[in-house]
Amino acid sequence: MAERYSSFTPGGTMWLLQRITAAFLIVVLAFHFFLLHFVNHADEVSFIVSAARMETLSYYSLMILFLVTATFHGVNGVYNALINQGLTGRKKQAVKTTLIVASVVLIVQGVRTANAWAGGVPL
Amino acid sequence: MSTQVPQQTDETDAETEPDAAEEPSKGDLRREKKAERAAEREREAEAAENAAAGGNTRELKVFRFDPEIEGKQEPRFDEFHVPFEKGMTVLDALIYARDTYDSSLTFRHSCRQAVCGSDAMFVNGQQRLACKTQLSELSEPVRVEPLPHADVRKDLVVDMEHFYDQMDAVEPFFDADELPEDELAEQRQSRQNREKVKMSTRCIWCGACMSSCNIAAGDNQYLGPAALNKAYRFAMDDREGEARKQERLEIIEQEHGVWRCQTQFSCTEVCPKDIPLTEHIQELKREAVKNNLKFW
Amino acid sequence: MASNTTYEHDVIVVGAGGAGLRAAIAAQEAGADVAIVSKLHPVRSHTGAAEGGINAAIRDGDSWEDHAYDTMKGSDYLGDAPAIEALCRESPKETIQLEHWGMAFSREEDGTVSQRPFGGLSFPRTTYAGAETGHQLLHTMYEQVVKRGIEVYDEWHVMNLAVTDEEDPTERSCHGVVGYEIRSGEIAGFRARDGVILATGGMGQVFDHTTNAVANTGDGVAMAYRAGVPMEDMEFIQFHPTTLPSTGVLISEGVRGEGGILYNDEGERFMFEHGYANNDGELASRDVVARAELTEVNEGRGIEDEYVHLDMRHLGEDRILDRLENILHLAEDFEGVDGLDEPMPVKPGQHYAMGGIETNEYGRTCVDGLYAVGECACASVHGANRLGGNALPELIVFGKLAGRHAAGEEFDEPEIETGKRGEYEDADFESPVTLGERAGDDAGTAADAAADGGEAVANPDAVLDVAVDREIDRVEELLATDGVNHAEIRSTVQETMTANVNVFREEEGLTEALSDLREARDRYTDVGVSDPSRTFNTDLLHTLETQNILDIAEALTMGALARNEFRGAHWRKENQIRDDENWLKHTLISWNDGDPDLWYRSVILEGENKRYEPKIRSY
Amino acid sequence: MSQSHNRGLIEDFGRWREFRAGMWAWIFHKFTGWVLVGYLFTHIAVLSTAIPASGQETAVLQAGDDVYTQTIVTLEELLLVRILEVGLLAVAVFHILNGTRLLFIDLGVGLESQDKSFYASLILTGLITVASVPTFLAGAF
Ligand SMILES: Cc1cc2nc3c(=O)[nH]c(=O)nc-3n(C[C@H](O)[C@H](O)[C@H](O)COP(=O)(O)OP(=O)(O)OC[C@H]3O[C@@H](n4cnc5c(N)ncnc54)[C@H](O)[C@@H]3O)c2cc1C
Ligand code: HEM
Ligand code: SF4
Ligand code: F3S
Ligand code: FES
Question: Succinate dehydogenase/fumarate reductase N-terminal domain location, by residue (chain B) (predicted)?
């Protein structure tokens, strides 16, 4: 087992980040759900209302952070689950690349959406 | 088939043949004796059966497999009826079944007192030590199988090599940075520190925890709860010193180390020595994180 | 014939309990290429069951001389002083060595290792690790074996020794052992260039109520015996006074050491009230307590006519949980009793064999290149009775000495003679029945082959090959025959031994036991194995072990019949006094190529600086 | 090397009945996690309709006739989507609760009652889900 001594495996870091993002998500996800389903009912959604919220810098940044952490947390979770199932070698590498690409696409698309509402980055 | 008895009698008959090769006089004698014995055995088995029918018996369904013996290559379950006595353990029942009905019934056992760790098996859906499991606590029929997620060698005996390899992988030996000069002076250790490692030193290498862990089942390289607990035992022992502790943390942090654990707790639940395995693993994770933070 | 697989090492250690592991480490440190061959994986050895502790004089106010004095007194003056002194002198160093290897001893406030009082000791010198000292010792030592990368052949059952065939056992030499791999059924030779160390542990399976493991069948003792090494003091079997009635699981002496009290059915603290031990009470020597309990039961004061009560409730929950937690689990799991709430039932059970393979104070036997250490050996340090906490130091002290000796280190001339050399005395022992193996039965060793008219073999490799071939034939025959099941024979032996050669012994019963054993032996000639498989054939394995049980039971009963006195653990109805006039001597039994022969050798009471004068043993 | 011997049906079926709390928690957490990622991707895909919408006339936007608003409204009109949303809530709530449980376990808190906390998460999830049904389905009929 060659990797026994490689303290470079970021296992610990990723593990810790997974927990930190989780703790962050508890709050934000609860807020998100609450805001969009209880305060504003789902069937009342419209572009204007969304845009209005997004134009506030604090809300905008929170959502971006939400997007990034959720993506990280979710994708890293999926990756870990696959590793635990015994994914190794080339396949593992391929999955990793795919997941990273997907995350980037997701985040880019998400940011573009947010910008669409805010009419660019709200400053 | 309710017991092994009829089959055994058949075998006896079938194997009278090779004896004929011996010198006739001796051979005849032997055959005669053998016939007597076969009859006797039948009587005894019948008596056992009758006693069994007499009411207070327990039914065991035991996994059977032998890679070499025709008829056993296809895994199957055999039923045994064992007369029940107060205080009887699953191991007692297996011994009874072996000595009375089928001497080829195979399982490891030695100490009969939960210290040698040889008789971990899968009893009614849980990893347990046969010698430490009272029959009276189990529902009938008592299903006895070898440990899941390990190669079965024969009947209830599994290959323990992989488990031993994982134990060896954590460098399971005390290795102090420095020792007292005087060969008659002991290292000091606080009571609290001994208390901290006490439970972890109780492991008897039975393999029950490893067998119960889904993660270990999916990832052969995962060190597993027993080995991680072993690592904990040394990493937390103050007598070893900082330098060694660093090395130990590196070992448990490897790719197939502590991070694999998904806190399923089944290891903790099945450990016959009540070692809080998950707790130890979790503490190692935190220890590792703290350790890494130091370098940031 | 030379096609057998052979594994070759300088030193081969048979057995991986405390004694075997220590021997292997010592031999390796002395530069030898060592391998351990064991029928169980090392951590499964019965050393793991030891609860109480390790005697070592490591504190101010204590001295190894006091320890030696206590041990000699405990042995009822049947121990050999050179061996006892070696034990007590080396024990402190070896015990601290264990600590340096990381053993998790219990600790005092100041961080030093804890010690507690134990029966028969004049100072609380029993060093312990909770109630699991043996477990901690075994694992600590196995860890060091792993650290040193010592080769371990586990689940290899050693069937016999490869010993040359000179007429006189003292001229024979041992060149290796024959092993049977349990997993595959392979039979292979293990060639030892420098020495074979037997460390196969106890022989409790000779009895049916025992604290010993199922694997403790005395294999090493029987193998050495058949190879010509005498068995010494076999009649001395320690019966532990506190074992659980249904399983034989041991309740440590630690309970009494901490203050546990024995009561009979009438609620009397009988050790005092019936005057068995007016000073030490429950902490008197084991044999005294075991006999007291049985007397209580025999006189109708036993509970359910079987056992007495051991009560520790008054110690308080904290103390019990701190020091005796393990006992609580044992009583709960194996007897269904909660020691915090109720007294625990206990009765005497076979516990330890003081006798065994005759060795000198370095663990050497009379056969060149053959050593024995641990419970299978008799150096002799325990004499007629072992003190609690004296077996574990024996493992580590003699394990180390034998390991080094085998690896070729120089030692002083031994003071203890082995084999029929020097001064000894032939016994006029008339056995009521024929003993041993009658001519024409299966032969045991290479030596017998020569006696049977086979050609003499001197070349070590050839000796090993002959031995291997013999065992292959034996196994083939057993597998091909469907004869008597060994379990029947084994239980006959166990029953007669428990009925007749127990705590109380008398001529009639002993004679009966000998004839039962004769019968069992005859039945064994028809033994067969019904499981034809080569894979993990425990049927075969137990059949092989049963042979050893037979040989040992017989020698044990011979010794018990011959020794017509009451000394230590050995009690004789006909002569209930210690007879120093006639019996300050060891009983030795030689296999004598199938015709067992009993003889005696005087005890050595002459120590390094003093002579141990026999005194009345009172507690 | 340590793969199980093929014990046929014994190994494949029936085992789940022998699962204990910790294992169920693990399986449910996995399942809910995956559903949530799946949803995250879909969610962003749907919300992306805001990008073309932002190019549309203000009047159109004000009337709510833009692509984005239309898409959402159409979707929200489907009963199936509403029910799926309830499911999503259940999934998210369980993941949050059990995730919190896991965080505590990681901190070494409440290890002895890990099975109880799992059952508590399940029950709470059930309660919260049932309680939110009215809000979620409001206006769907
Ligand atoms: C319940 C109990 C409690 C005890 N408590 C104490 C105590 O508190 N203090 C104390 O000093 N002593 C105590 N003793 C006594 C002491 O533990 C034993 O005498 C000692 O452990 C024996 O160690 P050993 O190394 O000689 O043998 P074991 O530990 O029994 O090891 C024997 C080894 O030999 C191997 N072996 C056997 N036969 C073969 C074969 N044919 N081929 C290959 N390998 C073989 C086995 O696999 C095993 O590895 C206790 C004993 C018992 C039973
Ligand atoms: C709201 C609070 C959340 C908490 C407290 C939380 C907590 C956790 C924790 C602790 C883990 C790690 C489990 C482990 O490795 O043992 C995890 C895994 C995971 N989480 Fe979350 N999470 C939350 C939200 C989310 C969201 C929003 C998503 C989706 C994007 C998500 C997707 C996942 C996935 C896919 C996994 C991996 C599951 C697996 O093991 O297969 N989580 N979560
Ligand atoms: S940790 Fe417990 S279950 Fe695992 S091997 Fe050790 S004693 Fe057995
Ligand atoms: S069962 Fe496995 S997942 Fe962790 S808590 Fe135990 S090692
Ligand atoms: S027989 Fe030793 S642990 Fe069960």
Answer: 60-164
B128 and B219 share one domain: no
Number of domains within chain D: 1
Buried b (16+ CB within 10 A) or exposed e, C136-175: bbbbbbbbbbbeeebebbbbbbbbbbbbbbbeebbebbbb
Residues with Cβ within 8 Å of C120's Cβ and at least 6 positions away in sequence, in order, are: C70, C73, C74, C283, C284, C285, C387, C388, C619
Contacts of B256 in chain A (CB under 8 A): 1, 3
- Which token pair is C59? 């504190």
Q: Say how many C-beta atoms besides its own lie within 10 A of residue C473's C-beta.
A: 12
Supply the CATH number for residue C318's domain: 3.90.700.10
Cα–Cα separations (whole angstroms), residue B11 to B35, B43, B80: 12, 16, 18
Domain region containing D31: 13-137
Tell me whether 0.90 is exceeded by the ipTM. no
Pair (B171, B113) in one structural domain? no
Are C48 and B168 a contacting pair at CB < 8 A? no
How high is the mean pLDDT of chain C? 92
Per-residue tokens: B88 = 């009887």
Q: How many domains does chain C have?
A: 2
Residue from C207, C243, C493 nearest C353 by CA = C207
Instruction: Give the mean model confidence (pLDDT) for residues C173-200.
Output: 96
B157: which 2 tokens? 């005996």
* Domain membership of residue B87 as a residue range: 41-158
Q: List pLDDT tens digits, range C449-458.
A: 444 444 556 7
- In this prediction, residue D139 carries a pLDDT of 62
Range list of H helices, C373-485 = 391-406, 446-451, 460-480
Q: Which comes out higher in pLDDT, residue B5 or C231?
A: C231
Q: What is the pTM of this model?
A: 0.89
Report the pLDDT value the prediction gives residue C443, as an integer from 0 to 100: 44
| Residue numbers of C annotated as active site | 286
Tell whether B146 and B235 lie within a shared domain: no
Tokens of B144: 């006895």
| CB nearest B116 (choices: C44, C481, C484) | C44
Q: Please judge whether C43 and B116 are an interchain contact, meaning their C-beta atoms are less than 8 angstroms apart.
A: yes
Indicate the residue type of C190: F
List pocket residues of ligand 5, CB cut-off 6 Å.
B 109-112, 114-119, 129, 131
Rounded alpha-carbon distances, angstroms, from residue B34 to B16, C523, C526, D68, D69: 8, 12, 9, 92, 93
Neighbours of C190 (CB within 10 A): 25
CA–CA distance, C152 with C143 (Å, rounded to integer)? 12
Inform me whether the C-beta atom of residue D114 falls under 8 Å from chain B C-beta atoms.
yes
Q: Tell me: the pLDDT tens digits for C67-109?
A: 999 999 999 999 999 999 999 999 999 999 999 999 999 999 9
- Cβ contact C203:C221 at 8 Å: yes
The CA R_g of chain D, rounded to the nearest whole Å, is: 21
Q: Do B276 and D3 touch (CB under 8 A)?
A: no
Could you give the CA distance from residue B230 to residue B211 in angstroms, rounded to a whole number?
A: 16
Which of A1, A12, A85 is the closest to B259 by Cβ?
A12
> Distances in Å between the alpha carbon of C478 and those of A57, B107, C119, C544?
88, 20, 46, 9
pLDDT score of B206 more than 60: yes
- For residue C47, the CA-to-ligand 3 centroid distance in Å is 18
Sheet holding C597-602, edge to edge: C377-378, C356-358, C231-232, C585-590, C597-602, C425-426
Quote the strand ranges of C292-355, DSSP E: 308-311, 344-353
Taking the C-alpha atoms of residue D11 and residue D5, their distance in angstroms, rounded to an integer, is 9
Question: What gap in Å lies between CA C324 and CA A51, rounded to an integer?
Answer: 71
- Measure the CA–CA gap between C40 and C37, rounded to whole angstroms: 9
- C524: closest CA among C561, C560, C553, C557? C553
Token reading at C408: 């070729």
- Residue B2 CB coordination number (10 Å): 13
